[in-house]
User: What shape does this take?
Amino acid sequence: MPDVKRHLFVCTNRGASGKPACGARGSSELLAAVQTELVRRGSDARATSSGCLGPCFDGPNAVVYPDGVWYGGLEPADAAGLADHLTGGAVLADRCTEPPGEPGERE
Ligand code: FES
Assistant: This one.
């Protein structure tokens, strides 16, 4: 099985749903900063935008796969820490959040 590269999905939704939208709270700037950091490091990990991930009130939100690690309350200053996760697996513990869903729904 080939090495699995990590992929960061950053919610950049700007839609007006009545909830706070990540895209209006700096997530596009965060995504650009992570992408810049990955290029600087010569990493082939991925960071791309996504639509609404669900837990809007916790945003700006992002998730790393295949690890299944969720992040919330992100700021552009978190770019280096997220790049650390993507390139080496070190989780940015201060920004981790519970995955969306009911408690006990996931193992
Ligand atoms: S708008 Fe980002 S999680 Fe809903």
